[in-house]
Amino acid sequence: MKLKGSLLVLIGAASFGFTPIFVKKGFEYGYTLGQLNITQMVIAFVLLWVLCLFKRVSIKDMNRKDALQVMLTGTSVGLTGIFYYGAMQYLPASLAIILLFQFVWVGMIYEWIFSKSKPTKINMISMVVTLTGVFFASDVFQGEVLDLPGMGILLGFLSAITYAGFIFFSGIVAPKTDPVLRSWFMVTGSTILILIVFMKDIPTIQMTDGRLWVVGAGIALVGAVIPPLFFAGGAPHISGRLANVLGSVELPVAIISAMVILSETVTLLQWLGILLIICAILINEFGGKLMYSYREAVDRSG
C-alpha cells in the first residue's frame, strides 16, 4: 500500500506542475482570475460527481462531521488556486511555482501547531537551504527581483501557506473514506468558496465560450481533479513528510513546462536554486535518519 500511495501522490504532484500552462494561456486570452477559477471548479465538481456515480458511492457513505472537515480542507484547494493563479498575473510562472514551494518549510509550522512536533536541527537546516535556494532561484543577482510587483510576491507566498495546509490535512481528514468521495467533498468546499469570492464574475461567463471552457477544463484536470483525487488516495498510506518529498516533483515539472511551452528563460543560477530547494526537501525528510544512523555507527566503533 505504501508503494501505491507513493505513486498516487507522485502523479498528483506532477499533474499540478502543468497548471501554469493553462493559467498563463487563459490570461493571454483575456480571461480574468475569477472566470478561470469558476470554470475550473464547476468542471471539477461535475467530473468528480460523475466519478462518484460511476463508482456507485453515495454522500451518505460519509458522516456529517467528516464531510464538513473534508469540505473545509477543500477550501485550501480553492485558496491555493486564487493565490497561485493570481501570482501568475504578476510574475513569470517559474517564479510563482518557486514561491509556492515555500510550503516545504511552512509545512513544518503546521506540524508544530497541529501535531505538536517541534522543528529539529535538521528541519532548521532544511529551512536555511530552502531560503538559500529561493535566493538563487529568484535571480536576485541580476536585480530583477527588486522590480517584481509586491502583490505577486505576496500572492505566491500565500499560495505556499494554503498548499501546505492542503497537503497536511488531506492526509489526516477522513482517511478511510473512498478517495473519489473525499475528492468530491473537497472540490465542493472549494467550489462554494470560489463562487462566493468571485460572485461578481459569474454573469461574465458565457456558456457558449468554448475556448474558456477548454482552458477551464485543462486547469480543472491538472489542478483540481487529479491532485486532490490522487492525494486523497495516496496520502493516508504514507507519512506527511514522504508526501512532501514526492510532491517536490511538481517543481521541475512546472519549471520545464514553463521553459518548453511558455518559452520562459531559466538561468543556471536559477536552476541551482531549484536544485537547492529539492535538496532541502530531501534533507528535511531523510537527514534525521541519516544523522541517527551515523551516530549509531560512531558509538559502535567507539
From TrEMBL:
Its main location: membrane. Residues 4-137, 151-283 form the EamA domain. GO terms for cellular component: membrane. Keywords: Membrane, Transmembrane, Transmembrane helix. It is a multi-pass membrane protein. The keyword Chloroplast does not apply. The chain crosses the membrane at residues 33-54, 66-85, 91-110, 122-141, 153-174, 181-199, 211-230, 242-262, 268-286. InterPro entries: EamA_dom, EmrE-like. Belongs to the EamA transporter family. This is Multidrug DMT transporter permease. It comes from Halobacillus litoralis.
